[in-house]
Amino acid sequence: MQNKKTVYLDYAASAPARESSLAAEAAYAASPYAGANPNSLHTQGRLAARALDQARSDLARCLGGKFRPSEVAFTSGGTESNNLALFGLAAGARERDRRRTKVVMSAIEHDSVLDVAAPLRAEGFEVELVRPGRDGKVAPEALAEAVDGGCALVSVMYANNETGVVQPVAELAAAAHAAGALFHTDAVQAFGRVPLDLAAVDAVSAAAHKIGGPVGVGLLAVRGRAALRPRQFGGGQELGRRPGTQDVRGALAFAAAAKECCDGLEGRREACAAKARRLYARLCADGGPILATAGTEVGEDRLPGMVSLLVPDLDSETMILALDDAGFEVSAGSACSSGSLDPSHVLSAMGIARREALGSLRVSFDERADDEDLERFADALLGIVAARTGARR
């Protein structure tokens, strides 16, 4: 019996490794400085340090926004980058001005930002959440109402990890700066997928595995003018911002994946957006049982390879397992815990009804996705929904 083909469509969780990234790892392994500590003064250490500096420069170029290579610190991934940004920048701002004891974040942030709220409060900060509109966007006017002279830091993600909605980051940063606050953006989903406008941003997070680099490598870029207090100590690496011997292999592989994604980005983006539009057209017919979470338009304000769906009165877990059995791997905007399904905090913050939010699906891919596989996925999902709702395909 022939094995069933499995089609992976969960790139927003972790994208398949790119050949360029694997090649960079192989080149490192074959190099004379493989395993050398880049902080050592001997020849192999200096070679490793030179390679690390090149990776840092490549990533700074891919970020844009006039970030300097020296402002890029390597981390273990997006979660550490976001934690370091929230704690470190808030503490730094408060040390400079004791009146600044407030942190503002959106209600649709990733858990690696939202879950920092409680420990920030324990350290004496007030934390306020700003809700988006039904379109998934945080309005600059709404943010401006929450930010005042006591605000130390604002953090709003560049693009949402469930809906793919891109935020008006430049305008949000301007609202933060008008009150003298710093502005951080979690660009983990956006980096390498859409052009970034970071000119007004004080700090930005990114992760390698979202773009086909290795798991366990990320970055936090922070402007030199912004005081960042470290959360770990010992060694002084990364200018003291994130001590510990750096992962040169991971940094090189991250930089290789980033260069591949950023070179010819517009062409890659449009090719991917076209795939998403076709998928929305198949799945979200007028009057059908499948809804588009934030509309079917895949323009500049949406990640090109994320299709966010709602199936009212069906639950995500049932659909995901049925799709998995059919050979398609996707994820949900809902978190399943202890046998009970709770609506996604993102969809709830957008004002989406519980009966719709419980049936959320996230289909994510990049330009490497096969068109025929996407068509077969659409057939499978439509069949599953029809069988469970009685809707016609």
Question: Would you mind describing this structure in some detail?
Answer:
- By secondary structure, this protein is an alpha/beta fold.
- The protein is 38% helix and 14% strand.
- It has helices at residues 19-30, 43-63, 78-96, 111-114, 117-122, 140-146, 169-178, 248-262, 265-283, 316-325, 345-349, 354-357, 371-389; strands at residues 7-8, 72-75, 102-106, 126-130, 151-155, 182-186, 203-207, 218-222, 291-292, 306-310, 328-329, 335-337, 340-342, 360-364.
- The chain has a seven-stranded mixed sheet with strand order 2-8-7-6-5-3-4, with helices on both faces. A three-stranded antiparallel sheet has the order 9-10-14.
- Helix 1 (19-30) runs antiparallel to helix 8 and helix 6 packs parallel to helix 7.
- The longest helix is centred in the first third of the chain and has 21 residues, at 43-63.
How are the elements arranged and paired?
Elements: E1 7-8, H1 19-30, H2 43-63, E2 72-75, H3 78-96, E3 102-106, H4 111-114, H5 117-122, E4 126-130, H6 140-146, E5 151-155, H7 169-178, E6 182-186, E7 203-207, E8 218-222, H8 248-262, H9 265-283, E9 291-292, E10 306-310, H10 316-325, E11 328-329, E12 335-337, E13 340-342, H11 345-349, H12 354-357, E14 360-364, H13 371-389
Parallel strand pairs: 1-11, 3-4, 3-5, 5-6, 6-7
Antiparallel strand pairs: 2-8, 7-8, 9-10, 10-14, 12-13
Helix pairs in contact: 1-8, 2-8, 6-7, 9-13
